[in-house]
Write a structure and sequence with these properties.
Layout (H helix, E strand, L loop, with lengths): L19 H15 L11 E6 L5 H12 L3 E5 L12 H11 L2 E5 L3 H10 L4 E3 L7 H15 L6 E5 L4 H13 L2 E5 L8 H11 L5 E4 L2 H5 L4 E4 L11 H7 L7 H6 L5 E4 L11 H4 L6 H20 L1
Parallel strand pairs: 1-2, 1-3, 3-4, 5-6, 5-8, 6-7, 8-9
Helix pairs in contact: 1-12, 2-12, 3-4, 5-6, 5-12, 6-7
Amino acid sequence: MSNPIKLESKNFLSSLDTSYEEFFRILEFAKNIKNKHLNIQLKDKVLGLIFDKSSTRTRVSFQVAMSRLGGTTVDLNPTTSQIGRGEQIRDTARVLSRYCDVLAIRTFKQSDLEEYAKWSTKPVINALTDLEHPCQALADYMTIKEEFKDFKNVVLAFIGDGNNVANSLILYGALLGIEVRIACPKGYEPNTLVVDKAMQIYKNKNLLNISNDPYSAVTGANVLYTDVWSSMGEENKKEKKDKEFKGFTLDTKLLNNANKESIVLHCLPAYRGKEITDEIFESKNSRIFEQAENRLHVQQSLLAALLS
Ligand code: CP
Ligand code: NVA
């Protein structure tokens, strides 16, 4: 049984804030927590949650994670705190880090998250930004590892918008040396800085493929992943995107083109009939609810690592 690791990085703002070894330790630790082989105590520790966007899973899994570890959570609603009134991030961060032991922040710009981290004396966790969703990616790769035992033969095909979820999957894919294929409509490719960073990590291994062809992306893949076409903050683009993403629905035809043993993942919330059909969502290939459960286990592991 392993002890909690101390992460080299003070914060968890990106998938790349864990090294290869730290990633595996977090997953191993999460597995032990899940199997109830560990009893970590973070008694009297307080997690502050700042959510500028809606959340069900991230908010609740962090609250339950802290409660199971013996600590507590303070949920700061931007509209009823001074955050929504425009108090500067640098002031909020300096005050909250005198009360809380760790902060989990969901906001729009990655640069705002970085500003919190710069001024906070306590660890800051990315609970989703427009650029990344690394807590989600940790749970995703935990789910993939549970299914396939290791990452050797994993080929992950992400069909849809090259968004925050895709970016974090790409970065961990590069760190782990996994083949990742992204198929999105033209103009919706993942962030170029993320892609460049991933290419550097992959070195000359040609394992990241970005295309506009969902059929070739799923051929031979064993993990099929999708997410909403319009992310939070893109509500005004919904109509346009719904049209432009036609042909990118994860459906039976795509699943039949993939490896027979494929699993289907979705970070949720899902819009059935848009990015995924109800049939695939509810199919035997779906590991969507295992994936959602794993948010709780990886986040307990992450909190232990950041607070130890
Ligand atoms: N997957 C995810 O982050 O869900 P929430 O938006 O409900 O937190
Ligand atoms: N890409 C989605 C993920 C939701 C968990 C969004 O940012 O809204």
